[in-house]
Each structure stands twice: as structure tokens, then as C-alpha cells.
Amino acid sequence: MKVAMLQLTSGDDPYANLAETIPLLRKAAAGGAELVLTPEVTNLLSPDRARQTEMLKPESEDPTLAALRTEARAAGIWLLIGSLALKGDNPEDERFANRSFLIDPEGEITARYDKLHMFDVTISETERYRESAAYRPGDRAVLAQAAGQPLGMTICYDLRFPELYLRLAQAGARLITVPSAFSTITGKAHWEVLLRARAIETGCFILAPAQCGTHPAPHSPDRQPRQSFGHSLAVDPWGKVLANGGTVPGVSFVSLDLQAVDRARSRIPSLRHGRPFEGP
Ligand SMILES: O=C(O)CNC(=O)[C@H](CS)NC(=O)CCC(=O)C(=O)O
């Protein structure tokens, strides 16, 4: 199965972001990818709540979703839109949704997943995130099917919650997606080791398309521009890194031999060896 991961530097203009995404998507499809993946918040990355309120749409009106569905259909590909920031659909909660979509080659939405774990973290005196102030977390894990393969959907900070990945693998996942916008500090320290650990623990291919670089946000000149780590990664079920997207926007192609899932799991059957135990 040939896969392509798009690495992007999304800013606070959804139309500019779409204009960056579409040529890369077409390049991925022209290169023979059957499944193409985009990073977290493909449509808009902005720390400015007012800008988000101004630009974000509900799912039914979102222009990025409509355009990318059309692209998937035209190219005849499976498309994992890592996530879109959207106006929420709960009238009692005005927070946005951070939602991942799986689109089939007819352009239909076949699965959606709302990010479960919110990045409410203080990394340093100058770098502080309160994702739950802007986004409403989801409350269910999602196992989808892409090109006949069971695919577990996760997003970014979810990566730090291994129980979610074990559950997806135990439910049958062979691929797990982790579209991200990792911070540069935690990216350097944790990104690769966490992705490789999740691949080894689950015996799954892990596909992690990422945001990279300095995100343009001219509407908030008073703030530090936000940066992301990049290094979109594909990891095989034995923990080997198959592709690394580096630090600039682009497309990474990777061929997956899905039988590697069975080989890794028969060599190390840890998914089957779990035992109930007493104690703390
Ligand atoms: O802010 C948005 O619009 C979209 N959301 C994100 O970019 C999220 C929350 S700030 N980023 C992460 O989860 C990074 C996790 C990370 O860096 C780590 O776990 O170390």
C-alpha cells in the first residue's frame, strides 16, 4: 500500500492554507499514493481566539472540507484529513472541535474523530498551551477502514496516552494515524521515541503527518509566532522509521507491507500476553 504524508505550515488564513495543501495533495496522488494524510489543523492554525471565531465554520459549511472531498474524489484516493478546526455543534458549548476525517475515493466522509486529549501544558515561561479553552474534547475512540485496512484515528497529544493505542490495536487496528502540530521543544525530546514506542507496543504502522516551521499569523503581532517541530514520521510495526519529512513543507512517500503487522505480532505477541493483575 503506497501512502503519502503532507507536511504543512498552516497559518491563520484557511484559503491560503488550502492553496498550499492542494498542489501537495495532487503531487501525492500523481506519485501513486492510495492513501494521503494531512496534519492536525490543516485549515487554520492560530493562537488568536478572535481570529478563529471569525474564520471557522461548522462542519457542514467548512470550505476546506468541501474542497478536499472534491480533490479526493477527482484523484480517486483515500484521504485522512488530520484535523480541521471547526465551529462546534453543541449549542451549550461554544468551543471549537478539533476533528479528523477519513474520506473515501468517492469523496464521502466515512469516519470522523474528535481529539480526546487536550494539550493544557506549560512548557516554559513563554510557552503555554490551553487547548481546552478553545476546543471541546471528544469522548470516543474511532476505528475506521481505509482501503480495506482497519485504521485507528488519533491526534497529536493523544500520542502520550498509550492505553488509547492499545485499545485501538486490540480492536483490530493495523494502521494508526497521529496527525500533529507538535511543539519544537517537546518534539525534539519526545516525538520520535513516543511514535516508535506506540508502533512497537501495538504492532501497527504509525503514520504521523505534521505541521512544521513558523506559522504565519499577521493578525496577532503582539504574540510570539507559533512554531511546530515538523518531522512527519512513518514507523513500521517493528519500530523502524520508514520516512521522515524533515523541517519544511512537502510530501513524504512510503510503501507499507501490511504483512509486517502479522510478522511483528507473531515475533513479539505482547498484544496477546497482557494479564489481569492485582495491586495499585
Ligand atoms: O491549537 C490548535 O489550533 C490545534 N491544536 C494543537 O496544535 C495542539 C494543542 S495546542 N497541539 C498539540 O497537541 C501538541 C502536543 C505536543 O506538542 C506534545 O504533546 O508535546
Automatic annotation (TrEMBL):
This is Carbon-nitrogen hydrolase family protein. Belongs to the carbon-nitrogen hydrolase superfamily. NIT1/NIT2 family. Gene3D superfamilies: Carbon-nitrogen hydrolase. It comes from the Bacteria. InterPro entries: C-N_Hydrolase (IPR003010), C-N_Hydrolase_sf (IPR036526), Nit1/2_C-N_Hydrolase (IPR045254), UPF0012_CS (IPR001110). It comes from Paracoccus onubensis. PROSITE patterns: CN_HYDROLASE (PS50263), UPF0012 (PS01227). The lineage of its organism: Bacteria, Pseudomonadati, Pseudomonadota, Alphaproteobacteria, Rhodobacterales. SUPFAM superfamilies: Carbon-nitrogen hydrolase (SSF56317). Residues 1-258 form the CN hydrolase domain. Keywords: Hydrolase. GO terms for molecular function: hydrolase activity, acting on carbon-nitrogen (but not peptide) bonds, in linear amides.
